[in-house]
Write a structure and sequence with these properties.
The chain has 7 helices and 4 strands; from the N terminus they run αααββββαααα. With about 260 residues, the protein is mostly helical. The strands form 2 sheets. The protein has a two-stranded antiparallel sheet. The longest helix has about 55 residues. The chain is rod-shaped and about 140 Å long.
Length: about 260
């Protein structure tokens, strides 16, 4: 029996230190809800999680872009629905102006309303959405995924000759020609609204796709980072018992040299 070197106490102290470290890690996991509280816990898993988080952040950005593009198209269609009403009324006025029982002054009144509606359509052609022209006719490239791939959102324009011929027509002097121009404009408007509808449908599909992808990535990241509370609680109870028993055994090991005194009695 020796006094200077207590191997039992040293071994107990080492095991107690290991158990204390494991208990501390388990406590950190339970308190944070994360399985990885430091890079040392799972360096590869942490690297994958960081990439997934970055991709999900980019997906959020793309989702915002797609949502704004949908709003852009919906705003366009809101204006065009009123333009449709205006053109319908203009076509009605063009027919009314061909009534043989109407005097020239009556036709002049029809032309006044016809001209006012034409001005309204010309004014709508200059509207914008957050500073971006709604009816420039330009194709806008909308970011649709985390890799910045784009979808070409077709534009529409109210400044073409098809519309200007209708808005500048005069039903008081040539109602037949004016009606022809308005009918052509109505046909063009129906095509333009169909284009906008196609844009909205495509953007909605992209938006749903981004939502599904983010949910899947979030689930994958959860499997890497989130702690299994039931399993970790079991580990915590285990390490807690080991720390308590290790502390007791260390006390016993430190008391062993005291028995050497009996040899000296």
């Amino acid at each position: 029996m020796v006094i200077n070197t207590n191997i039992s106490a040293q071994t107990s102290a080492q095991l107690l230190s290991q158990s204390s470290d494991l208990l501390s890690k388990s406590l950190s996991r339970l308190s944070s809800g994360s399985r990885i509280t430091s890079p040392a816990d799972d360096s590869a898993g942490l690297a994958v999680s960081m990439k997934l988080n970055a991709q999900m952040a980019r997906i959020d950005g793309a989702t915002n872009n797609v949502g704004n593009a949908i709003s852009f198209n919906q705003t366009q269609d809101g204006y065009l629905s009123k333009v449709s009403d205006a053109l319908s009324r203009m076509s009605e006025l063009a027919v009314l102006a061909q009534d043989v029982t109407k005097s020239s002054s009556d036709k002049a009144l029809y032309q006044q309303e016809f001209h006012t509606l034409g001005q309204y359509i010309n004014d709508v052609a200059n509207k914008d959405f957050n500073g971006v022209s709604l009816f420039s006719g330009a194709t806008l490239n909308v970011t649709t995924d985390s890799d910045a791939n784009t979808f070409g959102m077709k534009g529409v324009t109210l400044g073409s000759n098809t519309y200007s011929n209708a808005t500048n027509a005069d039903i008081s002097s040539n109602a037949t020609q004016a009606l022809s121009y308005v009918k052509t404009a109505i046909s063009q408007l129906s095509a333009d609204r169909a284009t906008i509808g196609s844009n909205i449908e495509s953007m909605t599909y992209y938006n749903d796709q981004l939502g599904t992808l983010k949910n899947n990535l979030s689930a994958a990241n959860s499997r890497i980072m989130d702690v299994d509370v039931a399993q970790e609680s079991t580990q915590y109870a285990k390490y807690n018992i080991l720390v308590q028993t290790g502390t007791a055994m260390l006390a016993q090991a430190n008391a062993l040299p005291q028995t050497a005194l009996k040899l000296l009695a």
